[in-house]
Design a protein that fits this description.
18 helices
Length: 490
Amino acid sequence: MGEGRRGTLKSLIFFFLVLFLCCFHVNGHPNYKDALSKAILFFQGQRSGKLPPNQQLTWRSNSGLDDGSAAHVDLRGGYYDAGDNVKFNFPMAYTTTMLSWSTLEYGGRMGPELGNARAAIRWATDYLIKCATATPGKLYVGVGDPNADHKCWERPEDMDTVRSVYSVSAGNPGSDVAGETAAALAAASMVFRKVDPAYSKLLLKTSKKVMQFALQYRGAYSDSLGSAVCPFYCSYSGYKDELVWGAAWLLRATNEGSYFNLLKSLGGIDGTDIFSWDDKFAGASVLLSRRALLNKDNSYDQYKQQAEEFMCRILPNSPSSSTQYTKGGLMYKLSQSNLQYVTSITFLLSTYAKYMMSTSHTFMCGNTLVTPTTLRKLSKSQVDYILGENPMKMSYMVGYGPDFPKRIHHRGSSLPSLAKHPQNIRCDGGFQPFFYSPNPNPNILIGAIVGGPDQNDFYRDDRTDYSHSEPATYINAALVGPLAYLAGSY
C-alpha cells in the first residue's frame, strides 16, 4: 500500500475513533444529551395502537388495534409496560406522572427533546383519558390477560392471546390505580397548559373526576382484580400512598385548598427508603416540600422533614442510612429490576437538590451536613454508573456507548420485524429459535434501560434472565429528569 493511501487510512481511523469517543463522552463526562434523546426515544418501542408517520423505531408496527372491543369500548393506544404485550395501567400511569414531573422540572434543559417528551406523555394520556371516560362509573385499568401473555413469545404485531379488558368500579374499587391515574393526568395538565390549553383543561377535569372516584370507593385494585394484576403489579404498599400522591399533584395543578385539606385528612406520610410505581410516599413528600422551601409556607414543613428523613436513609454516609451500595457504587435496593429503584430515587435526589439550591437550604443527617451538592453528586454517580462508569464498563442503556445489553428480555426486540419476517409468529412460535438463541436481538430498542446488574456489579447478558435483562417504561421515565438536568449542566 502506498504511503499516501496508508496516511489516508490512518486519518480515517483517527477520525472515526474521535467521532466514536465524542458520541459517548463530552469533556470527560458521559454524553448526557445523547442519553436523554435515547431515553425518550425508547418509548416509541413500547407503543401500542396505530403508529404515527414519524415513528422512528421502524421495526415496530401497528398492534392492539382491537383493544377494548371485548368491552365494546376503544382502548387503543398507551404503552406495553416492559418486555411483554400487556397494558398495565398502574405502572403506565406512574410512568406518565414521572415523565410529566421530569418535563415540569427540567423542560427548560431539554432543548429539542422537549417536544419528544411531550409526545411521549401524550401517547399515554390520550389512552388514560379513554380509560377514564369510556364508560360512566368505570375506570379501565388494563388490556391483555397477563397469564396468557406470559406463556407466549410473540411480537405485539402478531398477538393472538385474549385481549381481556379489566376495570374498577364502585363494587370493585381500585383507589391505588385511580389515585395514580389522577396524579398522571394532573401532572400532564401542567405540561400542556401553555402549548395546548384545551387539552390541559380536559386532562385536569378528568383527573378531578378520577380522584373523586378513588376517594368515594376505597379499596385496593389487587383485591378486586386478583390474578389479572398479581403478582405482576400488585399494590403491595396499599392505596393510601396513591391517594396522597393524587392529592399532592392536584394541589400543585390547581392550588385549591380543598386538596390540602384532603392531605391533612389522609394523615401523615409513612417513613420509607423506597420510591417506585408501587410506593409513592417519598415522591409525595418531595413534591409537597417544594411549597415549604420555595413558597416559605410552614404548613408544609412536615413534608420537608419527611423528605429529608428519606434522603438520610439513602445517603451512604448518613448515620440513619438503610441503603446498600455495591462495591462499584450502585444503589442496591432489591434483586429484581434494581435499576427501577435507582432511577426513581435518583430523580428525587436531583429534584430535592434543585429545591434546596433555590433557597440555599441545607439540613443535617445526624452530625453530617447535607447540601444540594451532596445530593447532586450522589445522583450524578448513579446516572454515570448506568451509562457505563461501572466495573463491567458497560452501559445499561441499550444503544448507548460501545458496550450495552444485546440480549434483552423483550419480545419485539428479540423477534424479527414484520419487514424481515412477514409470516405470523404464533404464541409459542418465538421460543425456538429466537428466545433461546444465543444471538443478539435483531432489533435494537434504543434507549431501553434494563433491570441492571446484581449486588456484585455483575451483569449476565441473558434474555432468559428477566429480572436483570428486562427493560420497563418506569425505569426510563424516572431517569429522564436527571438526564435533562445533567445535559443542561455539562
